[in-house]
């Protein structure tokens, strides 16, 4: 039973980082992992090719795949698009929604070899290991009604709706509680329940779930305080669970605490364990095509894929070990290089991981 | 023409920090500033006294005041209130809305004496001086419809509405452009225009205003990237303008970059220059009544008040100098004390500022 992996390179540095990740997948195949690989365009690349950010053919392939590896989407070339439905990001959002990928896992992990890269003091971040569980198919990203209108008097206004159903909250809550069980047993739910009714419901549902997980210690934090605490003392967190919008913001802040967002993978899972895997960072159009991009986040996304969707933890571990080894050998792409390390290209980094595999 | 200042101590550490700020106001009065001082309860204290977080009598006093000094509101005692309209925070939100205090200025300034207090590396934050301009009376905080409902099938859901009119965006935009003119001429508008229609309008309006301020360089940033950039390289920012919710989150993160949120004042202004002034930090119920709170943010809020609402820049400057002087003398409240400094109580800190005034 060969597993079917769809690679969606996307825009900006997407093609070059997924190219290296593909090499790693091929190395796994050479070592007994039974997979087939396919590729398709998404985002701006798809707009350029077919006029839409997610062609129905690509969506069908994605639905049929056992797992998806995504590079990144978006760039200034398509930023002027007034119609939100025709922007590269829409391709990503449609994939998440159509595949039901509600459970977004975003680790913020500091590699001991890279503690220097952080803008925070070493004692504040060394050993940092947070898992952010972000709800990915609901909230204000998808709420209706939404739009822009002009009133009769000519005044323009814009509106979006932040809405959650209890079952949407409960299912992401379960993912987070289970994650906390597998980690250090602490779960912090982030909301703005002192102002927003939708997040009061969020808090209630988390509290209702808590008795089912007596081994997990649940706490609540307002989103403004969470943003502050991430800066002040990030090691206080184990697992954080939050909605789509707050998760977008906090996961990027948390990732940047490590100083090496080029290292951080992510997974987006649906109820049947099918998943899309992608680096936490964006498409970085400013450095695209120059061999400056760090492929390790995408390569580590492959490791997450093997663990969560393909049940191949052995291969996952080998990839992670190979990454650790190239870091130990002081190989660094531009984003994480500093005096005393050896700066290498995107491609050389990919090759080094494959060689260490 | 005596000016009328209303002090709203609020909850937690609110009473003790406003007490010290009041001393400073009295010192100004002794030195020729023609003011009268009044006090009223707000937030949890008002709930305890009268059952509502903002009594109509207090609101009337606030409307009649030339300026308002607020301590902080909220605490676990009132957190269980299911009805958002009866929570302490509602008193604060109602004041903002009823007085039309749409322009929230939140400086994130690092005092050179306190660079050690930051969790970031000194080279990343020394000299940090950001002004965050947050829209305060619109957006998702006040959008309708909002609430919690149970559907016919028994499913609960919650919802809030993120909405902006073009005139709301334009007037906060003007505040921000003018602020950038007075500072270093750079304005970064933060939105999520790749996903939310309401913030596409936000971006459009900022772009429409730009030609009126040719001396200001306008840029745009997505909120997730802004959260990241604040952690990575905060000194890239001069003025940031954003909506109510994003401003809540980013201003707290920015404040915490300094490591001394106990030092940061804020102003909330309406169209006629009337203002409410308060520390950036919250009510910190865990340390209330122990003399541990830092009164300097509230004292510096008085300085902002004198500058923006009472047209007394001379007195404002004297307060700021007095604060600088006590820091130079190494006096520190618990939150900013470190080995080699002299830890003093809330009250002693207030007295020291008055003595240096
Ligand atoms: C590109 C954008 C639509 C997306 C999001 O906001 O979810 C990205 O920022 C992310 O976090 O994956
Ligand atoms: C207390 C709360 C309602 C308030 C807000 O969210 O605006 C506070 O966090 C602030 O930033 O002033």
UniProtKB/TrEMBL annotation, chains A, B:
Cofactor needs: Mg(2+); Mn(2+)
Pfam families associated with the record: Iso_dh
Signal peptide: none
Magnesium keyword on record: yes
Record-linked SMART domains: Iso_dh
Cofactor binding description: Binds 1 Mg(2+) or Mn(2+) ion per subunit.
One GO BP: L-leucine biosynthetic process
Annotated pathway: Amino-acid biosynthesis; L-leucine biosynthesis; L-leucine from 3-methyl-2-oxobutanoate: step 3/4
Reaction equations catalysed: (2R,3S)-3-isopropylmalate + NAD(+) = 4-methyl-2-oxopentanoate + CO2 + NADH
Residues under site feature: Important for catalysis: 141, 192
Protein keywords: Amino-acid biosynthesis, Branched-chain amino acid biosynthesis, Cytoplasm, Leucine biosynthesis, Magnesium, Manganese, Metal-binding, NAD, Oxidoreductase
Residue positions binding Mg(2+): 224, 248, 252
Cellular-component GO terms for this entry: cytosol
Enzyme class: oxidoreductase
EC number(s) recorded for this UniProt protein: 1.1.1.85
Annotated Isopropylmalate dehydrogenase-like domain residues: 4-353
Quaternary state and interactors: Homodimer.
Functional description taken from the UniProt entry: Catalyzes the oxidation of 3-carboxy-2-hydroxy-4-methylpentanoate (3-isopropylmalate) to 3-carboxy-4-methyl-2-oxopentanoate. The product decarboxylates to 4-methyl-2 oxopentanoate.
Family: Belongs to the isocitrate and isopropylmalate dehydrogenases family. LeuB type 1 subfamily.
Protein's name in the database: 3-isopropylmalate dehydrogenase
Organism: Kushneria sinocarnis
